[in-house]
Amino acid sequence: MTELDKKTGLYIHFPFCVRKCNYCAFLSFSADEGVRREYAGALMREIELAGRSFSGQISTIYLGGGTPSVMDVSLLSLIIKKVRQCFDVAPDAEITNEANPGTLGIKDRVVRAKLTAYKYMGINRLSMGVQSMDNDRLHMLGRIHTAENVVRDFDIARELGFDNINLDLIFSVPGESTEDALDDAKKIIALGPEHISCYSLQLEEGTPFYEMAERGEITEVADEEDRGTYHRICGLLRSSGYEHYEISNFAREGRRSRHNSLYWNMDDYIGLGLGASGFTRGVRYRNTSDLSTYLAYYGGQDADGAEWTTERPLDEIHENTDFDNISEAVFTGLRRTEGITYEEALAAYGMSPQKDAAEQFWKIFRDAEDEAKRFADQGLLIIDDAGLRLTEEGIDISNSIMSLFV
Amino acid sequence: MSYLDNIRNFSIIAHIDHGKSTLADRLIEKTGLVEARDMKEQYLDNMDIERERGITIKLQTTRLEYKGKDGKEYILNLIDTPGHVDFNYEVSRSLAACDGAVLVVDATQGVEAQTLGNVYLALDEDLEILPVLNKMDLDSARPDDARAEIEDIIGLDASEAPEISAKTGMGIDEMLEKLVEVIPPPKGDPEGRLKALIFDSYYDSYKGVIIYTRIFDGRVKRGDVIRMMNTGKQYEVTEVGYCIPRTLPADELKAGEVGYICGSIKQVADARVGDTITLASAPADAPLKGYKKAQSMVYCGIFPAEGEKYENVKDALEKLQVNDAAFNFEPENSAALGYGFRCGFLGLLHMDVITERLAREFDLDVITTLPSVVYKVVMKDGTVLDIQNPSNLPNPVDIAHIEEPIVKADIMTPNEYVGSIMALCQNRRGNMIHMEYLTKTRVQLHYEMPLNEVIYDFFDALKSRTRGYASLDYEFLRYQPAKLVKLDILLNRELIDALSTIVPEEEAMAKGRGICEKLKDIIPRHQFEVPIQAAIGQKIIARETVRAYRKDVLAKCYGGDVSRKKKLLEKQKAGKKRMRQFGTVTVPQEAFTEVLKLDDGR
User: Fold this and answer.
1) Which CATH code fits B3-182?
2) CB–CB of A223 and B549 under 8 A?
3) Which CATH number fits domain B485-594: 3.30.70.2570, 3.40.50.300, 2.170.120.30, 1.20.1300.10?
């Protein structure tokens, strides 16, 4: 397959937030308008350079953060314009913006104006970080919005014709029972979004929650309860017409996130902006996470006439081996409920389709076969003629299964 | 005047941490054989493990040159001694090579049990002892108390003991003057028949075994054929010389001198510490006294971990043995752990050192099983079996009785800790012989205890109960009958032979419970419940359950997470490699050694 007919995504990172949430380990901070403007300038320069070294078509664009909706509409529109100038964006491209309730505006009028602008820019999918529909829990999470904001913003988006909306939900917040979580899920389902992402809260090092747990101020929800909640939510969403297509993702028919699916299909994606990751031509890389380095490079002379090469400021760059490719294909593929086929895995390994794919696959993972079969015997993994997939119980301990293949 | 008058052969005796190595560094620096810039911190302790633990295991001997105030040029041979009870015999042979010893006492701490043990060894060798008060640069130094302790406890006149600081160099010149005055020159007849004591040896890949020796009578040079009087082995000498501390070839070594001999010897076991070297052409009448073959007191199994090759472990053990005559091993087969080796050590520290070297120097992944002592099992038919592997214990119905090794343990402590030490010893089946007040505040407790109780974590428990102040010295006393049973551990109803132990019958219940609790903490949760059971024969005496775990999943995996997640999974896989699979149960390797480190607070 050549770059020309490959699906390639574009991820653009906006590291700004109004405030940092208590559970958040992402790269984000608050910044004033001057910094945002400077960032937009540097980003546009990076877009230019990246565009020059890429000849294929862009099938999806994802504006993530941080909180892209904190970004000034004027700047955001320039950035998207720049993307269209520098890249061949497919006419039917999925263009998602993370729009967090509470950041779109306080007055209805402002929210309406902002969302209208997004629509005009060509943004056709919204992902809203709802997290909970309980105001106390939202407060505890450190979110700036209320459940009322969510309903209002969602309704306005609908009115304006956004017909592809994702709502994020977090469960197993310290102190939250399974019933509480189901209550949240029901309220979100009642809004009727096309897509729901449902995340079990993870206490990540370096977050306020982690520190609080260390000090014993909050208690992590017990594994059993967390998993119980997860399975109940999966059931509820399925019976409400959402397909469970990835560990934490659910969608109405035809409404899977095309962009996020790239990550689990070993497709290419270009990462732009501070700390953004990309995977192109078999190379995984991550941009510098240091704002001043980023601004100095893309905002200064260095980038003049430069190519978008490995000279640019990167924190990480790794050229995948064939084995890296197959093992990533397997563990990201196993995140999908349909699992991974032997053929897909072997393709990542650089092998053309063949009839004894299963045999070839297990030849590569000879060390893993016995244990994989043990997981299969326990009903956690399904191994058939076509490939492998996790059962819903298998998801609970998916890391142990995936670690067989790295 | 003889050349002998200008030689002094001495050791430094000190308790761990009392500054022996620092003093040695200072002496080397002062007497100029090693340029200061070449000095590594603590020159004599050159093995990583020694450096980390602040103890000396392998000896370093060095020749110093000192110009006395009387204008004479002295050769000072500093013979190092290992600093741990496991190496008592080695200490005694090093001391036998000396004519005197410098006793370093930490002026902030006073005399300790190990110091005393080594002083007694020195007195047994009839050495002159020069007491020295160290750490005098510290405000907490109590020189008068320390002096009084030396006089009261050891019976040495300490009134003229030099006050030094090995750290700052204070008082070192005075100490050297005193040293040549107090310590006598060696005696010996260079024209007599060769008698040379091996006090250390190590294997060098170019020269073969390098023997460290003190010549008592006669002389030896390149080309001579030497004979080891105890083992009877003969070698042609390829090189002799002095230790500065690196080897410096010389024409010959003669009576009174300290140096090294090489003779293409393939392993240190052929040049055993304590053996006497003589000339094959004109042998001495009798060897020097005191030769003893190293006796293993503690045994454990060493098995290749999952993914490690048996041959690699075997090669490494062979290499270690070449350099360590006190270490021995033989093949062993365990149902749980597969093919491995049963290894014998002088003591627990010796065992730790060997297993750490396997990991560090040979980069091997091994599982070590619970250490065990050697039991004498008297069968009903009158035969006596030596059992050092609990799994080999015969069927109880055929056993008349079992005997276990008892040691004499001397514990020295500030008096305020006597109560808690007595409780600890009682817990460890100790039998107090007597207790004496060495000074108003220092007490020595004499116990008889099963070695089995000492080898686990007795020393750690002792230290933690006395805030590090107590010190321990022990030696083998005798075998004694005891009521002992084999305690088995079952995981998921499968017997794990490598976890079997021999324990006193009346403690079996408590030990079984303790082991089960400990294993419950060590064994990771599986996707199913794992029962842990302790059993004597068919009878289950304790049980714990590792609850099934339910969550090992990453909620998010988007563009930036793939690399991070991959590293995480790789780490998880590597962690698993350090585990051992028993049927469906995965056990981390440390389970095999950690399991008996039970706190006495139980």
Assistant:
1) 3.40.50.300
2) yes
3) 3.30.70.2570
Is the model's pLDDT at B63 over the cut of 60? yes
- The answer to whether B3-182 and B485-594 have equal CATH topology is no
SS3 category, A186: helix
Which stretches does DSSP call E strand in B272-365?
Answer: 276-279, 298-304, 328-334, 338-345
Taking CB atoms and an 8 Å cutoff, what residues of chain A touch B562? 263, 277, 279, 284, 328, 332
Q: Do A260 and B584 touch (CB under 8 A)?
A: no
pLDDT tens-digit series, residues A188-227: 999 999 999 999 998 888 899 988 988 889 998 988 899 9
Instruction: Output the CA–CA distances (angstroms, integers) from residue B59 to A67, A344, B11, B245, in the order listed.
Output: 65, 62, 11, 11
| Tens-digit pLDDT profile for residues B122-171 | 887 889 999 999 999 999 999 999 999 898 888 889 989 999 998 898 99
Which chain A residues touch B584 with a CB distance below 8 Å?
Answer: 374
The two tokens of residue A383 are 């191994």
Domain spans of chain B? 3-182, 195-279, 298-367, 376-473, 485-594
As a CATH number, domain B298-367 is: 3.30.70.870
Q: Are A14 and A71 in contact (CB under 8 A)?
A: yes
Q: Is the pTM of this model over 0.80?
A: no
Q: Which residues of A362-389 are buried (b: 16+ CB within 10 A; e: fewer)?
A: eebbeebeebbeebbebebbebeebbbb
ipTM score assigned to the predicted complex: 0.90
Provide residues of B within 8 Å CB-CB of chain A: 527-528, 549-560, 562-563, 565-566, 568-570, 572-573, 576, 584
State the smallest CA–CA distance between residue B42 and chain A in angstroms: 40
Looking at domain A3-264, its CATH class is alpha beta
pLDDT single digits (tens) A154-196: 999 999 999 999 999 999 999 999 999 999 999 999 999 999 9
Nearest CA in chain B to A10: B559
Give the fold, CATH level 3, of A322-405: Arc Repressor Mutant, subunit A (1.10.10)
